[in-house]
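[job 0417] fold request received: PQQ-dependent sugar dehydrogenase
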Amino acid sequence: MRQRAGAAVVAAAVLLLAVGCSGGEGGPGGGASVTPHGTTPGSPFVTPPEATPPAKGSVRVVRTVAEHLTTPWGLAPLPGGGLLVSSRDDGTITRIDEKSGKKTELGEVPGVAAAGEGGLLGLALSPDYGSDHLIYAYMTTDSDNRIVSMLYDPKRDPGDQLGAPNTVFRGIPKGAIHNGGRIAFGPDGMLYAGTGETGNRDLAQDKNSLGGKILRMTPQGEPAPGNPFPDSTVLSYGHRDVQGLAWDDKQRLFASEFGEDTWDELNAIKPGDNYGWPKAEGKSSDPKYHNPIAEWHPAEASPSGIAYAEGSIWMAALRGERLWRIPLKGTETYAPPQAFLKGKYGRLRTVVPAGGDKLWLTTSNTDGRGHPTKTDDRILEVEVS
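[job 0417] inference complete; emitting structure tokens
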């Protein structure tokens, strides 16, 4: 793979992290200043005021895009059309024609050891996908959780369109539960991964462990320039099980997290911060721990994927069987979270932007904990405001 870490890239990445740190609860791509329209060259940079989303929003399911999927987990829209979806238990990646719903299996990823909450999980496209055609995947093996990249060649026969996996990053702890699994490339071109503590609580507070963390690395799997801990991919720690990552329009990072028995969380991520688990679940009075911006009882949430659209974070809930809207003002909630689709489609796993006011949303009723209908699992097109 082509190396990206030239001097300019390093400097830009460090600047992005510095802005996030200095602005309070910003993420690694924190609200960078821009020159407002009409200013003259050399005038001071200022940050334009942020639009405030309405206190109340709306959700409309436009259509069912695809049906009869087996344990869908990761979802990645392709440039020019098409959706890639991973099957946690089958270890396959399938392309969905988002207009017709036609399914084409690209192939099975070798080495996937699906058991419990582990298997073939998150998907992400290379920042250079237009030239390198690489798909990144987070997968559970017999020994660990790891991130691999694979060449996608649609000209090959169906079932044989994936190249051999190249291990980008290995050694993330695995377990029957809490394997994390969400990966995404950020606005800075770096690869982010949410991991779980596998049920071993102590891993979350151990900065030398990769469990219970949000990781930030180069596309080649090296610690990203500007990370808060020397020679480490760890961006933040004290997490229980992170399965949602998303950036707002100011490049601030947010993450969803499974709680235990009391509080699930939505967090604004600040590099180097401790998010409390297992010492704190939900909001804490201890200043050592970074408090969530919103929290829910697990029966209402058990959150997995998140996406940003129309001024809000949209959060898919598994046990809660609903889609949450969390309107934002900066890195705080502007109004109380609002629930949609409660119980209508069962467990919801992954939500990704589909452009403008649209989202792609997957159900997760065939994962062993849901009650699948004859057409599950499904991908839905949803219009939001």
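[job 0417] notes: The longest helix spans residues 7-22. The CA atoms of residues 8 and 14 lie 10 Å apart.
[job 0417] exit 0
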